[in-house]
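task queued by scheduler; priority normal; single chain, no ligands, no partner chains; default sampling; output format set to structure tokens
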Amino acid sequence: MREKPLSRIGDELARLRDDVMSKRSAPPAGFGIDEALVSRFADGELSGQPEADLAGQVARVLPCHWSQSNTYASLMTQVTDHLGGHRQLVTWLDRFPGLPRLTARLYVLMGLLDRYSEDRPVIDALRESRARTPVPPGLQGHVVPDTGPDTLAGLSYEVEELLGDGEPRKAVDLARATAEWLRKVAPRAGELDHRYADLGEVMEHSEKDIEEAAAEL
């Protein structure tokens, strides 16, 4: 995973905070985390294939954190605390190819979308873009006519929802289309505020990270 996108998401990912998540239906049957693996992991006794198995379990249930039981929440807290926080959780998942790595990289993009969702220069650049092209390529049915703070946050929510529904390739398609849209408006955002001068580079790196991980599925 490239460092630049990771460095922009902050230490606490909004997608993983229960206080900002709306409640949805329960995840598909069969999702869960092995308590014994979590215990060994928290004690620093897990490595090799068992650790990879735990990463796979975490990746499958992470998008469903909003509807899991107290037992699940406790297990996830043990994993996250052992690693040192949300950002470290993402970095750990990135070590394991397949769904764990893809999930990590999609969460980095979600973190970027949540971060930029209320930034006025980015919103204005998106709004100007839609004045020329009302529906950005690949986002038909995903964006409402009005462009505002909910635009990027809503796309982030949909990416997570697709992951939670067991549709990682659809999540990748939406993530790539969103990243490409932001990359195209980045020069204008940089003109409006120099603090966004590297937005295009950040989005390009994130998009490439996701493409590489998706190729492992």
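post-processing summary
- Confidence is low (pLDDT under 50) at residues 19-23.
- The radius of gyration is 17 Å.
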